[in-house]
Amino acid sequence: MLPPAAIITDIEGTTTPIAFVRDTLFPYARARLEQALATPEGDKIATEVEHMAPGRPARETLQHWMDEDAKVTPLKALQGLIWDAGYADGSLKGALYPDVHPVLRRWVRSGVKLYVYSSGSVSAQKLLFGNSVDGDLTGLFQGFFDTNVGGKRESESYDRICIGINVPPHEVLFLSDVETELDAAASAGLRTCQLVRPEDGTLPSDRHTLAKDFTEVATKFSV
User: Fold this and answer.
1) CB 83 within 8 A of CB 122
2) Fewer beta carbons under 10 A from the terminal one: N or C of the chain?
């Protein structure tokens, strides 16, 4: 089996511990919600939210979406604004599993094109990898995708990404910890691998290749 020409990776539970997102990023954004809404960028997002949920203050809708961890683009954009300030002043550093950055660098050296697809906004993705505990890794990636291309559990989203990166689906490997996301990618013809990290309590799938870390992904897909 030939190695993939491109690899698309999820973030939460795949490159980054779920605990970092749940226990660090989300509370950080919630505590600074009011402050962010008072900015010009936040005001624009609030207007968009009120159009989506009329008759209810944007603040309440956003708090409700935060409670549900809703994959809603305006919420992700606002969280990205808040995290931007946190990374800029050094109070946040993007957490990565220690196996991630050495393997990413090796893949790039071998000619594999790397991409990110996450429910977090593109700006938030770039902030995490640009201010990671292992330095600025954004230069390793050819592109970043978020829910603007569609939901991660919709096969059409992966069709759009493959068209956008100009790589046939069968030459693309998608990495995620979520079985339903992998199902959608597989339906679009991509190769798939589930990261089953013990720290995140991921339930292993019986429909996809499994790997405990990026080193094992590299071994199983000869990349």
Assistant:
1) no
2) N
The per-residue pLDDT for 57 is: 95
What end-to-end distance do the CA atoms of the chain give, in Å? 11
Torsion-angle region of residue 27: left (phi > 0), alpha (psi -120 to 50) or beta?
alpha
- Contact at 8 Å (CB) between 118 and 10? yes
**What is the pLDDT confidence band of residue 89, given thresholds at 50, 70 and 90?**
very high
pTM: 0.89
Opening angle at CA 212, ends 110 and 151, nearest 5: 80
- Cβ-defined contacts of 167-171 (< 8 Å, 24+): 167/5, 167/6, 167/113, 171/2, 171/4, 171/5, 171/6
Which domains, ranges and CATH numbers included, belong to the chain? 6-16+94-220 (3.40.50.1000), 21-88 (1.10.720.60)
Q: What is the 3-state secondary structure (H, E, C) of the chain?
A: CCCCCEEEECCECCCECHHHHHHHHHHHHHHCHHHHHCCHHHHHHHHHHHHHCCCCCHHHHHHHHHHHCCCCHHHHHHHHHHHHHHHHCCCCCECCCCCHHHHHHHHHHCCCEEEEECCCCHHHHHHHHHCECCECCHHHCCEEECHHHCCCCCHHHHHHHHHHHCCCHHHEEEEECCHHHHHHHHHCCCEEEEECCHHHCCCCCCCCEEECCHHHHHHHCCC
Question: Tokens at residue 4, please?
Answer: 């993939």
